[in-house]
Design a protein that fits this description.
The complex is a heterodimer. By secondary structure, chain A is mainly beta. Chain A has no helices and eleven strands. In chain B, the strands form three sheets. In chain B, strands 2, 5, 6, 10, 11 and 12 form a six-stranded mixed sheet that branches. Chain B has a four-stranded antiparallel sheet with strand order 3-9-8-7, with no helix packed on it. In chain B, a hairpin with a 5-residue loop joins β7 and β8. The chains are: A mainly beta, B mainly beta. The interface between A and B is medium-sized, with 25 and 24 residues.
């Protein structure tokens, strides 16, 4: 079965510091991968998605970036965090030709 | 353009009472429909989905939803809720002809609070 890991589970960072969040998946090959942000406990905002290694589509222009160095690894980064980057970051995968997305456990980011 | 509207941001209900969480969508093409549940500080879990076939779909924990094409709705229902059903519920839609780049359009969520 498919499994999604996100690391770290929680993170507290000062404004202006860099960020790297990691998502790894198991039990599937060549999935579509997604990064979402959920702010203030409500609503999902799609940040990036990837249909393959090195292929990244950005949905919202901002100071975040994403990379997919391996088929089952998706990384969310920032060079300098803003207060507004605080939120709950969710990684999701979609595979097998169906439209169903499955979510990881999330990373809670607090920027102070 | 697609959009999803969850008509109630909060739904308080007493334990063992029935509940309906409403979801309406707009799309010019045929769609797939999903309900997800999110417990505090956790990721989203797929509750149920409609892809094709029977318009009434059911989850293993007693929820059901009915796809109504004429009313463009996919309301979620449960005849008797438990305290453990307290969570955030999200409705989502995708076009079924979107090729490989399949994105979900999300509602803003409905917070279900089950009180004793």
């Amino acid at each position: 079965s498919q499994t999604i890991h996100q690391w770290p589970a929680t993170l507290v960072q000062p404004v202006g510091s860099p960020l790297s969040l990691e998502c790894t998946v198991e039990g599937t090959s060549n999935p579509n991968l997604y990064w979402y942000r959920q702010a203030a406990g409500r609503g999902l905002q799609l940040l990036f998605y990837s249909v393959g290694i090195g292929q990244i589509s950005s949905e919202v222009p901002q100071n975040l970036s994403a990379s997919r160095p391996q088929d089952r690894q998706f990384i969310l980064s920032s060079k300098k965090l803003l207060l507004s980057d605080s939120g709950f970051y969710l990684c999701a995968l979609q595979s097998g030709g169906a439209n169903t997305q499955y979510f990881g456990p999330g990373t809670r980011l607090t920027v102070l | 353009a697609q959009s999803v509207t969850q008509l109630d941001s909060q739904v308080p209900v007493f334990e063992e009472a029935p509940v309906e969480l409403r979801c309406n969508y707009s799309s010019s093409v045929s769609v797939y429909l999903f309900w997800y549940v999110q417990y505090p500080n956790q990721g989203l879990q797929l509750l149920l989905k409609y892809l094709s076939g029977s318009t009434l779909v059911k989850s293993i924990n007693g929820f059901e939803a009915e796809f109504n094409k004429s009313q463009t709705s996919f309301h979620l229902r449960k005849p008797s809720v438990h305290i453990s059903d307290t969570a955030e519920y999200f409705c989502a839609v995708s076009e079924n002809n979107a090729g490989n780049n399949r994105k979900l359009i999300w509602g803003l969520g409905t917070s279900l609070a089950v009180n004793p």
